[in-house]
Amino acid sequence: MLQIRTVLCPVDFTEESFRELDLATEVCRSFGARLVLHHNVGNAPGGTAASWMWHQEHRNGHSPEERATAQLRELLEALPSDVQPQGRLSSGVAAPAILHLEDELGADLVVMATHGASSSDHTSIAEQIVERSRCPVLVLHGDSDRSLRLSSEITRIFDVLVPTDLSPAAERAVSYAFELARVLPIRLHLLHVLIPRKSAWVETGVSMGEPQVREGQPSEEIRERLAALVPEDIENRVRLHVEIGDPTEKIEELSNRLKVSCIIMGAHARGFLRKIFTRDTSLEVLHKAVCPVWFVPETRAA
């Protein structure tokens, strides 16, 4: 059975921090996990990966460490009494600091918010963590209008979308979703997107690889492959979906149509050439989804 013992939650004290903290608290309550709040004090000038918190912390005559310590303490004191929290402070470049602490703690999950996609003047910390983390990462978009509620007091079933291209890397995410369904009140929607043969896309929807479907391949065959993945003990809470077209668009469409509370999908390690020449559906979904996205790394043991 899936166990989540330690949840790492990096915060930057923006408005999104309170929402991601609520989400991390929900997970900790559901699994009895300890919660580690982490803040990284950037010590580099604007324009680098750590600049996202530089200006707000260098004011009022207080050192960044003093301000961060006080704010972190306030967050810890405001947490519910049934959560086991602790705070950690670091300095330097944010993404490496988060990844280092993840390894040090042996974290089972990272919960964080994204402030938007990388651009010429902004490096997305969330993108770096999703690409390089060795444990699953649950990301909340700043503009998200849906929340994942997992409390045992809630009796309703929540819908969760699980896109898969049926590759080994994607199957790890599907297996993880099945494990979650055994301990949480969720209904899973397995989605496979068929890509027309004439498409020039290299990526099939979740992880990199050659397209595994061809134009004209019957959707019923894909549905049978999806059905074969579903364990008998949870088959009454799994729905199957086969769509044709752009993977990102279809994921977004079905997510909105079903009003899912979360998307669970694979994340993969990306080489330099792949990053230049191919699309990345995982990161597109990360920034377009209006619900939390739970990424399962390719390196996670099956």
Oligomer: single chain
Average pLDDT metric: 81
- DSSP helix fraction: 25-40%
In the predicted model, the low-confidence regions spanning at least 5 consecutive residues are 44-58, 199-216, 271-278
Rg, Cα atoms, Å = 19 Å
Number of strands: 10
**Superfamily at the CATH H level of the largest domain?**
HUPs
- Give the CATH class of the largest domain: Alpha Beta
Q: Note the total helix count.
A: 10
Q: What's the order of the H and E elements?
A: EHEHHEHEHEEHEHEHEHHE
The backbone outline, from C-alpha atoms, is globular
Number of domains: 2
CATH second-level architecture of the largest domain: 3-Layer(aba) Sandwich
- Main beta sheet: strand number and arrangement? 10 strands, mixed
3D structure, described in words:
The structure is a single chain. The chain is an alpha/beta fold and 302 residues long. The protein has 2 domains: 6-141, Rossmann fold; 158-297, 3-Layer(aba) Sandwich (Rossmann fold), CATH 3.40.50. It is 36% helix and 22% strand. It has helices at 15-31, 54-57, 64-78, 94-105, 125-132, 168-183, 219-229, 247-258, 272-277, 281-288; strands at residues 6-10, 34-41, 84-91, 109-114, 137-141, 158-163, 186-194, 238-244, 262-267, 293-297. Strands 3-2-1-4-5-10-9-6-7-8 form a 10-stranded mixed beta sheet, sandwiched between helices. Helix 4 (94-105) packs parallel to helix 5 (125-132).
